[in-house]
Design brief:
By secondary structure, the chain is mainly α. The chain is built from four helices and no strands. The longest helix is centred in the middle third of the chain and has 23 residues.
Length: 104
């Protein structure tokens, strides 16, 4: 796919936008709002499968997502806290609770 294929696909819509009511002071934001209101045929749309299928009812799915986010958070905070006086997310949580409680 060429670099400007998507831009070339937008040109007919830009022409229709300008024909509809040429304004001297229209902006790209105006065009974006206008194009969102249009009924545009979209081709090559495929339903994406989730990267990790969730199981169970809604509460179980929320639990799975929170657990995955917690693992992600722990992994990156471990890198962040590597050279800091705070070494774990638990220590950070403890200090944050003291700050909120007002006893710090």
């Amino acid at each position: 796919m060429m670099k400007y294929d998507q831009l070339i696909r937008l040109l007919p819509y830009l022409a229709a936008f300008e024909e509809e009511g040429p304004k001297a002071d229209w902006t790209a934001k105006d065009f974006a709002y206008w194009i969102l209101e249009q009924d545009i045929e979209v081709d090559n749309v495929t339903d994406l499968e989730p990267a990790m299928p969730l199981q169970g009812d809604l509460a179980a799915q929320i639990t799975q997502l929170v657990t995955l986010n917690y693992k992600y958070l722990r992994f990156y905070l471990k890198k962040k806290f590597k050279d800091e006086p705070i070494s774990t997310i638990d220590e950070f949580g403890f200090l944050a609770s003291l700050l909120v409680d007002g006893t710090m």
